[in-house]
Write a structure and sequence with these properties.
Elements (H helix, E strand, L loop, with lengths): L5 E2 L9 H16 L3 E6 L3 H9 L9 E5 L8 E5 L3 H12 L3 E6 L2 H7 L10 H4 L6 H14 L4 E8 L5 E7 L9 E6 L7 H14 L6 H9 L1 E5 L4 H9 L52 H12 L4 E9 L3 E4 L11 H18 L7 E4 H4 L7 H7 L5 E7 L14 H17 L7 H4 L7
Helix pairs in contact: 1-4, 7-14, 11-14
GO molecular function: metallocarboxypeptidase activity; zinc ion binding
Function: Extracellular metalloprotease that contributes to pathogenicity. Involved in the digestion of the blood meal.
Family: Belongs to the peptidase M14 family.
Length: about 450
């Protein structure tokens, strides 16, 4: 059955960025004043167990793991509330002889330094030297859709809890002959601002009509793309207006004062198992039921409609400089692990050697490289939809700035990530029945 997805036109939006940022800083100053970020490095199995136990000793308002150690020797980054909470935790770490270091002594001051005020420059390069508000992103997408000379089309594939549209850019070279589809999502976690910037940079490169990049032309002729820059628009706008460190969506949770669900823990494939929280106040809250969130439902409906032509999926996050593949819910290897390792290795090599900054990315199975996580998008696409080439990309950095990447690092990050994405598609071995694809068109 043919699905028709909505092609849209956006109204012109005028944004007073300076006023917005002043408002953001005022609201966030209260919320994060005095918070610290501590890096913990457990060296033994006992220290690892103790470090992980901290998650259950304090409320989510007082302590949040930005990075969870998957094994001894792996680091954990922990955001800790002020006053006696910090003293309590550090004293316990000292007692257990766990090595730690304060990475950010005043989290709020780091947030204030992330200055994305209105650019004084113009043009493509200036645009990718910073992150942007949701309104700016939507306006940019509309502008590109009118300039791409038939090579792209802006679609709405659903709505958020607060009725904001999920806008995705379709990029193809031949509208009459659909090719295998690669779906790329950004911004599922609201605070990871460099993620939407990466999706926009990818769109910019794919639709450019003056590219001399032979590899880029090859992948455009090989597959069609659908790119969703902001999976979680409600959460994203909330990080600009209220809380820079917000992660979840903004859905209401029945019988709880805590708002939001982690959209990357809400998928039905092994939902509610290890690595997702049943606590509505947790940043990793799984939701009241599998697929309970409207954003997840919208994207799942689209994915289901395209399952016969969907050959690749990439979910872009920050931070950690990692390329991850299934499984997340178990330490057992995926059936295609050797092939996934081959492609991930090619991605990491391209980022380092072609990205221009010699940045090192590690790669591996998500549950073994980071931690066990259930109900994730990539496990759903790999396990439920049987798509072979499924990855998540954790962008810069390694923790110096974490989620609060400064503007000067935005452009280097998106440029090198683009090289990794090209390598992913270039290295995919595709076998697809084009007869099936005739009924799987997203062209309206």
């Amino acid at each position: 059955m043919r699905e028709s997805w909505v092609s849209i036109s956006l109204p012109t939006v005028i944004i007073v960025t300076v006023v917005l940022l002043l408002k953001c800083n005022n609201s966030m100053e209260v919320y994060h004043h005095g918070h610290k970020v501590v890096r913990v490095t457990p060296k033994t199995k006992k220290q690892l167990g103790f470090s992980l136990s901290l998650r259950h000793q304090f409320t989510n308002k007082n302590l949040e793991f930005w990075r969870i150690p998957s094994r001894k020797g792996a680091v954990a980054d922990i955001s800790i509330a002020p006053r006696n909470i910090y003293d309590n935790i550090t004293q316990q770490l000292l007692t257990q002889d766990v090595k730690f270091k304060v990475r950010k002594s005043q989290l709020e001051s780091v947030i204030d330094e992330q200055d994305f005020k209105a650019d004084r420059k113009s043009g493509t390069h200036a645009w990718f030297e910073r992150c942007h508000t949701l309104e700016q992103i939507f306006s940019w997408l509309q502008k590109k859709a009118t300039q791409c000379k038939g090579r792209c089309q802006l679609l709405s594939i659903g709505k958020s809890f607060q009725e904001r549209r999920l806008y995705a850019m379709k990029v193809q070279t031949n509208r009459q002959a659909p090719k295998p589809l690669v779906f790329i999502t950004c911004g599922i976690h609201a605070r990871e601002w460099v993620s939407p910037a990466t999706c926009m940079y990818l769109i910019e490169q794919l639709i450019a009509d003056d590219s001399n990049d032979v590899a880029l032309e090859r992948i455009i002729n090989k597959v069609d793309f659908l790119i969703l820059p902001v999976f979680n628009p409600d959460g994203y706008i909330y990080t600009w207006e209220k809380d820079r460190m917000w992660r979840k969506n903004r859905g209401v949770n029945p019988n709880s004062d805590c708002v939001g669900t982690d959209l990357n823990r809400n998928w039905s494939f092994h939902w509610g198992e290890t690595g997702a929280s049943s606590d509505p106040c947790s940043p990793a809250y799984r939701g009241r039921a599998a697929m309970s969130e409207v954003e997840v439902q919208s994207v799942a409906k689209f994915l289901e409609s395209q399952r016969d032509r969907l050959v690749g999926y990439l979910d872009i996050h920050s931070y950690g400089q990692m390329i991850l593949f299934p499984w997340g819910y178990t330490r057992d290897p995926a059936d295609d692990q050797k092939e996934l390792i081959r492609v991930a290795k090619a991605m990491a090599k391209a980022i380092k050697t072609k990205g221009g900054y010699h940045t090192n990315y590690t790669f591996g199975q998500a549950s073994r490289t980071v931690y066990i996580e259930s109900g994730t998008t990539k496990d759903y696409v790999y396990g439920h939809l049987n798509v072979k080439y499924v990855f998540s990309l954790e962008l810069r950095d390694l923790g110096k700035y974490g989620f609060i990447l400064p503007s000067r690092l935005v452009e280097p990050t998106v440029k090198e990530a683009f090289e990794g994405i090209k390598a992913m598609v270039m290295n995919m071995k595709l076998k697809i029945d084009f007869r099936l694809m005739q009924n799987q068109s997203i062209y309206s």
